[in-house]
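Ticket 4471: requesting a sanity check on a complex prediction with adenosine-5'-diphosphate. Repro inputs:
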Amino acid sequence: MNDILSNLKSVILLRSLRARIFLIILVLGIVPCILVRVTIVSNYEARAVETRASAVQNQLTITANHLVANKYISALTGRADDYTGSLDVMDAEIEMLGDIYEGRIMIIGSNFQVLKDTYGISEGKTIISEEVIKCFRGISTSYYDSNLGYIELTTPIADTTAEGGAGVIRGVMLTSISDDSIVKMADVLGNNAFILEMIIVVLVVTLAAILSKFLVSPIAKLTNRISAVKAGYHSYVQPVDECTETEHISEAFNNLLSRINALDESRGEFVANVSHELKTPMASMKVLSDSLLASPDASVEEYREFMTDIASEIDRENRIITDLLALVKMDDTSGQNLNIAPADINEITELVLKRLRAIARKQNVDVTFETVRQVVAEVDEVKLTLLITNLVENAIKYNHENGWVRVSLDADHQSFTLTVEDSGLGIPEESLAHIYERFYRVDKSHSREIGGTGLGLAICRKVVMMHHGKIDLTSKEGEGSRFVVTIPLSYIADAK
Ligand code: ADP
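Returned structure tokens:
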């Protein structure tokens, strides 16, 4: 029910692609159809009125000539001594013409008096209209009144044989004919066009429904296949290759799926590693406490020795948890965990070295710091301190007795570079690619012995990434290592 409602809503709001396609086809199919019908019908009416008016006008001109030839006007006004025809014949011709065209014909004399009216209503009356005056000047007019439904025509009765020059206007024929036949024809045409239009509308609606369904069918298919993945029937989307777009979406979706799977795998691996790392100190503590419990006569010294070991295992567990927490906090790449502010990098480095010199002294490792210039950069001070501490601590830890550690700081106008070099054990070539992985250690037992968690370099890489910098490593087993960290002086916020 909810599905139907939401489908209906998306159709109404035109959020559905299918609804949009349907509407576009509908508009493209029906609008031209309506335009064609309206244009044809209205053009027909105009053309039909024009044709009829000119046909009637021709006929009227012929009759006007007959009237002139028969001196009809003079006969009617009683001025014709030489009247040649018969008034009845001419009257009949005029009446017949009126009947043929279902209209009314009036003959107006030169004094604007109605000499003859086929309706017999206005004879003797005077008609002075603009059209009649114009016609007396020799211009025949036609006027269509679509509201009252008639065409009015004026035809000059011109005597070309008269003395004093051609074209003496003896009178005017004022004719009104009905437009009934034109309107009837236009109605028939309009009705036929309307029926045709309805047929086209039905066809277009059907076509739009079929076409819109057909066009979105690859998307519907893709949605079903993605749903099948979601429901767990498939582990990847079967590509919909009916069109390039869906093929690309299937491909992109499968890439995303493989990334998610890889992420899932690495998360599983990480959890397994974490459990293992956390269990190791626990197992040691268990062994230590069990052996104490198993020897009821253990001396105070023995107790002290075992308890010291247990305490150091607890410290180790603590270190692992602290490092893990630091890493997990940095996993949020949104930048919200960053506390960026301008900081003096020289000062931070010197502080770290001061803290670590005690350990270095214990191992007889000489730590030096070289700096060319004062460097101020926008960094998260706490995280940068963690980075420098891990690098320098490693350089001291994985060093020889009487070895050296050289830290140097330099900068250009864009970024600063911190180099940590040591004369220590170096890293074998096959380990270089794995060195930043969580819990990766070249020599597991040695690292454990010296209190390593295997998370230090993973943390370093994360800090560098958060600052949009880079970390490079060159190392040779037995000769030493060189870590070079480059970080921009100004922090670049992530594009959202
Ligand atoms: P750990 O806590 O074990 O030191 P790290 O992630 O800091 O973990 O380092 C991972 C491994 O990389 C270490 O166990 C060590 O084998 C190797 N390593 C790191 N830094 C150095 C170095 N400066 N010289 C030699 N080996 C190093």
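Notes from triage: The first strand starts at residue 103 and ends at 109. Leaving this open until the requester confirms.
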